[in-house]
Amino acid sequence: MKLTGSKILLECLQREGVDTVFGYPGGTVINIYDDLMDSPIKHILTRHEQAAVHAADGYARATGKVGVAIATSGPGATNTITGIATAYMDSIPLVVISGQVPTPLIGNDAFQEADIIGITRPITKHNFLVRDVKDLATIMKKAFYIARTGRPGPVVIDLPKDIQLATAKFEYPETVELRGYKPTYSGNVRMVEKAAAMILAAKKPVIYVGGGATLTDAHAELKQLAEMIQAPVTTTLMGMACFPKRHPLSLGMLGMHGTYYANMAVTNSDLLIALGARFDDRVTGKIATFAPHAKIIHVDIDPTSIKKNVRVDLPIVGDLRDVLTKLLKELGEHAEEVTKQGDRLKPWLEEIADWRRQQPMSYVPSKTEIKPQFVIEKLRELSSDDAIVTTEVGQHQMWAAQFFDFVQPRTFLSSGGLGTMGFGLPAALGAQAAFPKRQVIDISGDGSFQMNSQELATLVQYRLPVKIVILNNNFLGMVRQWQQLFFNKRYSQTCMELPIDFVKLAEAYGATGLRAGKPEEVEEVIRKAFATKGPVIMEFKISREENVLPMVPAGASLNEMVLAS
Amino acid sequence: MKHTISVLVENEFGVLARVAGLFSGRGFNIESLSVAPTLDPSISRMTIVTSGDDRILEQINKQLNKLIDTIKVIDFTGEEFIERELCMIKVTAEDDTRAEVLRICDIFRGKVVDVTPKCYVIEVTGAPAKINAIIELLRPMGIKELVRSGPVALGRGPKGWRSND
Fold first, then answer.
1. Distance CA A395, CA A471 (A)
2. Is A478 annotated in the active site?
3. Rounded distance, CA A298 to CA A278, Å?
4. Residues of B with CB below 8 A from A117's CB?
5. What mean pLDDT comes out for the span A270-284?
6. At what angle do helices B98-107 and B128-142 cross, to 10 degrees?
7. Which single residue of A52, A89, A129, B15 could bond A69 by disulfide (Cβ 3.0 to 4.6 Å)?
């Protein structure tokens, strides 16, 4: 049976199990949108293409499936760039379909033409320009395969309008063969044995977990490993929810705004077990003094991550869950030594406990002003364990990471690598579309929120009951904090001088708006919001010049922290 | 330190841009790059001359391998290999220098591929050092223009790049 390109596209999406797509129509995708009316695939119309990609990203982060977004050519496609780059930096599987001007017009500066393949080349795992409708099904198959396997990432398919109209026999390939792409899943057993030996010889080990644990759903294996060898666990922003923060071995986050005890533990460790993390500069601080006494074991599926930033003593390329399973088995064969090891590590855990006693995560409470940390704690207290939290980027993001006790994986969705303001609201939208019954909370600041606030319309239209928290300090708080600490309090362009009435804004879109100006109103506002059926904005007027602490100044060593007290 | 790398890639639209973009985007050097299809027309072979310390070279290798269209990366560092470059030189050859230009050309086993009363175009191949040498000798005669292909390289011995050969 012959089908048009646009029908083939939708057929392929169904074969890949896609039930929801996010997008925005336009001239060069109008045929796809026409066929979409007869397709069982649900389409969510965002109010901006950037939001469509973030929504697909939020959907992917929450579910582990590939997120799909559609945009028209030219400005539609260029609007997706920030979304694609965000997903690329955090290794999120996406397939982004962009319309393109008809093939004969490509290169002619046609109306709404942009070289999106050229533009997205460095921010995608791979991209395809479809030049013959006969190739479309194979390209779709390859795109989904590339997006979700190995180190996941976004793939762009640029589909010219004439290819959407042309017809071909539809046959979805069952397998895919890419001779240049063979990710290594299975960790080398000999390396795993060496790792086990290093672990059993260590006196001060620290497990350092990144987004790879989230992407491979390796939380159960991770917990087993930590408990087996009694090693403390610190996570990056991307590994955040993979290890329950209330676990006695949890050190919380490390790095620039990490806990004092996590950073001290890393600095004093003799073995750093890096699992699916990439030694980002926000994690390491000054490289030369990072974990100076530690041997480093680095497990990652992407060979380029290994030895990119730091020296590594034992590299293991492979799928994190596979490697952890093998490591657990290997350690299991040395049960006696493992038990001895547990006893031997007691002084190390005691040393860490001391650091924790000296500098616990804390803030100065207030009876008159709303402290942002207090709001986060209250949110956690009043939300359910499986609530999905998204954030924008800035102070509120770090407070959420520091003070929200996550217990389940895939419940913290945040732009870690690219640090994209405006990510949280559309990501929450996508997560809520995936899980209509779960609590979804976007923790936001007044600055970030305004970068994609138009998505309130999407939430209301599709009855997506996202609860939005705006920690409003009328500042671009994180930049202001840097200006206060490092630029002599010269607050250049960080004061948001026009106060926005966020309650009215919510109402203008048909959502509910609530506001708290005093600490005693916080709980009531949160309770009321959680009891409301539809989307709600909760605006909290917080203490304006509150800082995110501890803080490792840019370029300093992890043990040179500016502390809260 | 200079390194010569061969990259076998899918002979597809945009692959050169992916490789070139990788080098510029990550701040790696390219001293020269040459590319053409292989015996198998679906595969192109690139020869890239680059430089950097061990850490950078390791990254270059890994990053090239990471490209979906890359089939194989061969770093010739520490290997026995042959490196050849083609150069065409348009050199002034008038009465007093005409014979000397021909003599230099002969010594380097070059060929005169175009003749006019006032100049020759000389074609010469060899390792980059040999090309540099002839250029230096011809420079005083007056080089009007030259073009170098950049080196291409092949490993010595019976082994081909496919591991199953």
1. 9
2. yes
3. 9
4. 14
5. 96
6. 180
7. A52
Q: Does B63 lie at the interface with A, CB-CB under 8 angstroms? A: yes
A115 touches chain B (CB under 8 A): no
Amino acid B79: pLDDT: 87
Check CB contact under 8 Å for A121 and B21.
Answer: yes
CB contact under 8 A, A146 and B68: yes
Angle subtended at Cα A331 by Cα A330 and Cα A337, rounded to the nearest 5 degrees: 135
Alpha-carbon span A479 to A512, nearest angstrom: 30
Residue A360 at interface with chain B, using a CB cutoff of 8 Å = no
| Cβ A422 vs Cβ A471: under 8 Å | no
Q: Which residues of A touch B21 (CB under 8 A)?
A: 121-122
Q: Cβ of A302 and B66 within 8 Å?
A: yes
Residues of A in contact with B66 (CB under 8 A): 302-304
Percent of chain A with pLDDT over 70: 100
Q: Tell me how far the alpha carbon of residue B24 is from its chain's centroid.
A: 19
Mean pLDDT of A113-119: 98
Is pLDDT of B156 > 50?
Answer: yes
Encode burial over A385-394: b for 16+ CB neighbours within 10 A, e otherwise: eebbbbbbbb
Known catalytic residue at A112: yes
State the alpha helices, DSSP H only, in A230-280.
Answer: 260-268
Residue A65 pLDDT > 90 = yes
pLDDT-based confidence at residue B161 (cuts at 50, 70, 90): confident
Q: Which two tokens stand for residue A304?
A: 């380029």
Which of A7, A16, A22, A49 does the annotation list as catalytic?
A49
ipTM value: 0.92
Q: pLDDT per residue over A493-502, tens digit each?
A: 999 989 899 9
Antiparallel, parallel or unpaired: β A167-169 and A2-4? antiparallel
Q: pLDDT tens for residues A391-419?
A: 999 999 999 999 999 999 999 999 999 99
CB proximity under 8 Å: A 171-210 to B: 178-181
Cα(B134)–Cα(B140) distance, rounded to whole angstroms?
Answer: 11
